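Minutes, project check-in

Agenda point 3 was the complex the collaborators sent over. CS summarized: two entities, 226 residues total, and the question is how they sit relative to each other. Sequences were read into the notes so everyone works from the same version.
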Amino acid sequence: MGEHKNIRLKLARVQKDLSQEQLAEAVGVTRQTIGLIEAGNYNPTIRLCIAICRVLGTTLNDIFWEEEE
Amino acid sequence: MKHRGIKDERIITEFQKLNSHGFTICFAGLMISLAVKVFVLNWDMKLWLDTFLILMAACLYVVIRGIRAGLYQLPPKEGEVKRFKKMNLIGGLLSSVVWGALMFSYDLLDSNQADLSKSIMSTVAGTVVFFCGITALQWLMMKRSNKNADKTLDSEN
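CS then shared the predicted structure for the full assembly.
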């Protein structure tokens, strides 16, 4: 549960002054889905990742790339 | 804000998963029901034919759609293909033995004065035919599915 919390997504969303609900509406998913992505409990498809990045004005690398530990 | 109209993939995927589980539950239930009707209660065929046909239709649907979508894939390495063929043969052999045993027991049950040698001969012949059919069919199914998968890839490029 929540192995890799996506803090960068949360930060980018907050920087854009968007709530989870607003981001969810913008990309066409439910608020819960955004919440689960941020909590690291849902692995989104590349299509949804791109949609999120477009709304937040970021790249896939900025939000979803994970460096090897 | 621009709405891109993406359906919630998480919910769709979850529903698909649940539907798949539901199908498995129905499938297992029907299989058990069929087995009890045929082997335990010894009901007449007309009393379980509907269950049998539903099961066959469901199986055929899944298999044919799987083949058409190219979902049954052969392993990529030659060594693994050999192992797959071996497993295919073992699987075919096991199912043939089960089939043969069932046919033989039915032969014995059906005739009071069983002609044992005739029954054994017909069961062995039937088992060999069954074995050849089932292994060939599985192999053809895999080949066809691989071909379809490659075809999809070619049309994409």
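Noted in discussion: The mean pLDDT of chain B is 87.
Follow-up: revisit at the next meeting once the mutant set is ready.
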